[in-house]
């Protein structure tokens, strides 16, 4: 194990820190390399999807919204390309949440905090805000110098600050603006927003999201991950010894020396570590930690220290990946002179994958086979049964017909049970007696009061099951529901 | 607090000085912005006390700067709702009874309104599901004393039965026994005759011819020669399977001896015309409407 002596251990006991600590501002340095490129690509993808998805059109026919992704709250519908969900189908969302959670677990058991480092909105927007900051105020050293400077501000510095915050606020405003577009027809709302005719609530939400984006990405940054987010704590419980995490390979790095000293010692044939203590890994870190202290809760595993270290190792002619995706098992194996072992397929990842496949598969199956015509039946509770003047028995039901398709349907309702039943729908004088015909407008529900009568001669003795069949007479699609027919 | 704090050589941190059963707490400093946020919430709370109703007093509470009350909010919302409903109820009032049942939107409104008003006004006698009770008709079935068409139901709701209203339904079952019109054995005989009309069993030794004669002389005027009843007079059909007071011999003897004259109040003047219309449609749509 890495047993370096912490110099703090020598501190006297009377050196007691304050209970509250001021934030140490982080000035991440720019870096280039593989992981930086991956991060740029993922940032472009994520932000592109977020900002432009509301403008994607999807033809659903006349009268239906033509927005590919739309959360239509007034009409309680959710549209996602070819899928249209009703409020009672919210369980698909539950399934999606289960899949999302297990995908997080799986990512974590394979490659650590992939979510935190590359995909989390907090990371993506903070990265973008840092990029703006760097572009305007310069890299790490310049920003530190400018912040520390006590000289009176010159126009140039003031204009830098104004420009930076203006761009931040524009990005933040656009973030809020894109958010509200998911709840309304985007082109229409953009026009309304531009001419200040949009509903108040739209401006309120844009304001809220502008404020949160500006604060969280411009000021709070790594504090969100360290103090506000529960995931760093949860993921620590999900990781295991095989999970690959961004790791300083101390088997190779220790003992740290300088470039010069290392060369001298190597010339003498002595063993030296590859780490030259250049602090580049610390300089580029967006959370301001030292990866060489081992796995830390603050580390979002963005991989930028890998790039920084690789650049240095290339320069001094040592092999790359002194910092890389690795785990303690392999460090120990290398220390013992054995080849490293990588185990992506293990019980944990197999179980997670199986859960994802099962829940996802079940959801896709139910979504693909769900009926766009549905019927719910509710038996009258009071009175449960009525005796008519000729002695026959009548039960009343509240029937709700759901037409989830984009066209009107004409349906016929039948009831069948062990005895001869006749049915009647209040308000419907059907041309076909005992087979009421109803029109259900597209994308809507119809509630009917349905009466079922069993004639006197074959009165059922007790409660008997009755099956209701709703048949689309145009398409032949049938939806069914079962309830009971009760005698007094 | 810091008096008891000490340096922990394992973690390299100092402790806060708190100790519980030998367990000491390491000092992991909170970020200062967090503490500032905490104080801000306290300031916010004080502002809240001033602006909104907050503190209970002995018999009231502090009302806040703008006198906000959630009850007033509800009152405003209810008033708005009444306005929306008012418009719809006007449409309901203007439509004819038959048209209401044909229009799904009006039917739904009438049924919803009717059910609520029924629960408030009619349920004490007829039951919340309109299933009735002894002496109070079941409105779900197809047997009607005063008629089961939409117009007849509406008329009964408007003016009631034996309610004292000028237009009310009149007519009552006389007390044939109490008033000395029929003697005891005649009442038993005619009671058995009435049971036979709807196919119920009769007493041993009962004289059917005598029963028919008594019925024709005393009962047929209202109930008709065949006992089919008369809705003009509220005389029930004695040949069907539905009995308002009961079909057993003892109950029939009681009915014939003492008469029956159930009262239904008139609702005109108590409920507005559109509401009465909604209620008529509701009762009609329960299933028994003609």
Structure, described:
The complex is a heterodimer of chains A (488) and B (290). Chain A has helices spanning 34-52, 91-111, 114-119, 121-137, 140-148, 155-181, 186-194, 200-220, 222-228, 231-238, 250-253, 259-267, 280-284, 304-315, 328-335, 347-369, and strands at 20-21, 69-72, 77-80, 83-85, 245-248, 323-326, 373-379, 386-387, 393-403, 409-416, 422-425, 437-440, 444-454, 464-472, 478-485. Chain A is α+β, with helices and mostly antiparallel strands and 488 residues long. In chain A, strands 7, 8, 9, 11 and 13 form a 5-stranded antiparallel beta sheet that branches. In chain A, strands 12-10-14-15 form a 4-stranded antiparallel beta sheet, with no helix packed on it. In chain A, α4 packs antiparallel against α6 and α6 (155-181) crosses α8. Chain A is elongated. Chain B is 47% helix and 6% strand. Chain B is built from 11 helices and 4 strands. Chain B has helices at residues 32-51, 70-94, 97-102, 104-121, 123-126, 150-159, 184-197, 208-218, 220-223, 249-258, 273-285, and strands at 7-8, 13-20, 23-26, 30-31. In chain B, strands 1-2-3 form a 3-stranded antiparallel beta sheet, with no helix packed on it. In chain B, β1 and β2 (13-20) form a beta hairpin. The A-B interface holds A 6, 8-9, 11-23, 223, 227, 380-383, 386-391, 394, 396, 426-427, 446-447, 449, 451, 456 and B 1-2, 5-7, 9, 12-14, 16, 27, 29-35, 101-102, 104, 107-108, 111, 127-131, 138, 140-143, 237, 240-242, 285-288.
